[in-house]
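Please predict the structure of the following assembly.
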Amino acid sequence: MLHIIKKSPYESSAFSDAIKYIGQNDDVVLLTEDGVYAVKKGGKFEDILKNLMQKNAVYCLLADIKARGIQEDEIVENVKIIDYQGFVEKVVEHNPMTWA
Amino acid sequence: MLHIIKKSPYESSAFSDAIKYIGQNDDVVLLTEDGVYAVKKGGKFEDILKNLMQKNAVYCLLADIKARGIQEDEIVENVKIIDYQGFVEKVVEHNPMTWA
Amino acid sequence: MSGQEKTKVMLVCRTAPYGTIYEQEAIEAMIMFGAYEQDISVSFIGDGVFSLKKGQDTAFLGKKNFSMTYPVLIDDFEISHIYVEKESLEERGLSGDDLIAEVEIVGRNVLKQKMNEMKAMLPF
Amino acid sequence: MSGQEKTKVMLVCRTAPYGTIYEQEAIEAMIMFGAYEQDISVSFIGDGVFSLKKGQDTAFLGKKNFSMTYPVLIDDFEISHIYVEKESLEERGLSGDDLIAEVEIVGRNVLKQKMNEMKAMLPF
Amino acid sequence: MKLGVLVKEGPYMHQAIETAYNFIVAAMEAGHEITGIFFYNDGVYNRCSTMEPPRDERNIMKLLSELELKGVRLIVCVAAGKRRGIINQTVCKVEEISGLGQLLELCIASDRMITF
Amino acid sequence: MKLGVLVKEGPYMHQAIETAYNFIVAAMEAGHEITGIFFYNDGVYNRCSTMEPPRDERNIMKLLSELELKGVRLIVCVAAGKRRGIINQTVCKVEEISGLGQLLELCIASDRMITF
C-alpha cells in the first residue's frame, strides 16, 4: 500500500493514524501538502520517521516542500524527494490510501 | 477568556493548543461540536480535564453531547453541561476565543 | 457483471459524526453502493468509531440522526462487512457494548490485512 | 475615531500556509485592517509559525507566494505587532533565524497576557 | 450586549453555521443585539441561494434569511465570495457585499466578537 | 494504467484539487488513462462556474474544464451538489451529474482509485 498523508502531523491525527497501518515491508509513505512538515530535521517527528525508514520507504513531494521553504539539507536523511511524475509512479506501483 | 474548543481532541491539535493558553483562574473552557468528545470518562483526556478543573471551570454544550450519544453518567465529574442560553451567558461573561 | 469477480471496495470512516458532514455522506455512499452487487465493506478507525456510539439524540441540534442506518446496513443494504478497530475503541473508553450495531471488532493488524485485499479504499 | 481609544484586535494564525487558504485570507484581512487606524496585532502559534518560514518557493505548485507580505506588514500596512510563539517554533525545530520577517518572538505566557488586552481575537 | 459574529466555514460540511444559528437565536431571545454576521473563508457558501437540501435537513440559506427578516445584518466578504463564485447576482442571495473593513467595524461596534 | 480520481474538498480552501490537477496532468503525460474525476463532499464546489479569483491565482473551474477538453470525464455527485446548490443549470458548469453509483463504477473500471 501507498499511504498518502496530507495533513500536518502537528495539527491532525492523520500522520499518527497512518503510521500505525504500515505493517508490511512493501508499504510506503508519501507525504504531500501539509503532510511534508513531518520531514523537518529537529522537528517532533524526526525519530518516528527514522524508525519507520528502517523497514519502509518514505517519500515527500518536491512542490510541497519547496512551497513551504523546506530546504534539502533540512530534511531528515533517507527521505526521498519526488515530483508529480514520481507520485504517479508510486500510485502505479502500490494501491493508494489517503490519510486526511 | 472563554476558550471555545470545537474539534475532536483525538483528531486535532485545537484542544492541546487551547489548554496551554489557560493561564488565569478566570479562564474557562467551553467544549462544543466535536470538542465534546474530550469529556468522555475513560477516554484519553479524562486526566487532563480533571487537572484543568482544579483551577478552571469546564463546560460542554448539551445539544452536542446529546447528538453524540454521550450520557450524563459518562461525563467526567465536575464538567458542567449548558444549553445555548448558557453558551450566550458565558460569552457575555468572558471574551471568547475559538480554537478550531 | 455475471461471471466476473466482485470488486472489493472499502469505505474507511475516520471522522466523528455531526461536526463535519463526511460521515453522513459516507452513509449515503454505503446505501448506494449496496445496490451494485459488489463486495463492499466499511471500516471505522480513529474518531470514526464514534459514529457507532449508542444513544445518539439529535433533537437539540435540529439535525437528522443518521446512526439508525448502521444496524441495517448489512441486512437491508447488502454491505458485506462492518469492521471496527479495537484499538481506537479502547483509546476512547468504548467497548462493543457501547455500539449501536452488530459489528466485527477487529485488531489493527487484522484490519490491515483486509485493506490489503481491497481493490479500492475510499477514505471519509 | 478622533478622541476615541483605538480598538485592539488580534488575528491569531494557527494554520500552515498552502494546505488550506486560512493563512492567505488572514493576510488579506491584515492588509485591509491596517488602513483603519486601529491597534491591530497578529500572532502565530502552532502550525501558524510555518507561515513565516524563509525560502518559500511556490513555482512548482503554481500558486502565489504570499509570504513576501509579512516583512512589510508593520511598515507598509500599519500592523502594530507581529508575535510568534517561542514554544511552537522550538517544537518544530525552528528558531528566529529561520523566519522571513522581523518579528517579536515571545513565550506563551507573554502572548497570553497580550490576548487578555484584546477587545477581539479572530482565529485563522 | 452587542454581539458580532464571524462565520468561517461552509454549510453542511461543518457544524459551524448550525452552532452559530442556534447561538444567535438564543442570544436574541435573551435580549442581546446581534451587530452582524460576517461571512468569510468558506463561510460565504452559506449564502448560496440555490441550495436544495433533502426535506429532512435544514435549509441553512433560508434559516439565515429568516434572521435577516428579524433585523440581523448578513455581510458577505467580497474577496472571499468572488474567488469562490458566490457573489454573482444570479447565483446567490447576498444582501450586503462588503470588504474586510466591515469585519473590523463589527469588532469595533460589538462588545463581544465570536467566531464559528 | 487506468486511474480513477475522487475529489472530496472544495477549491481554494484546501490544496486537494490543486494536487489532484498536478497529479492528473503528470499521469496523462506519462501515458496513463484517467477514467474520471468524481466530485463528492465539498468537492462539488470545484465546478461552480461563477468563480472569479484574482488574476494572479489559478481559476480552478477553468483548469478542470481544460482537462475535460482533453477527454477527462468530470462527474458531480447529484446529492452532494443539490445540498450545496451547485448543480443548478444557471449557476454551475456541470457536464455530468450522477449518483454515487458512478463512484463505484469508477472503482470497478480503474486499476487504481486515488482520493484527494
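The longest strand of chain E covers residues 33-39. The interface with chain C takes residues 12-15, 18, 22, 56-58 of chain E (CB under 8 Å).
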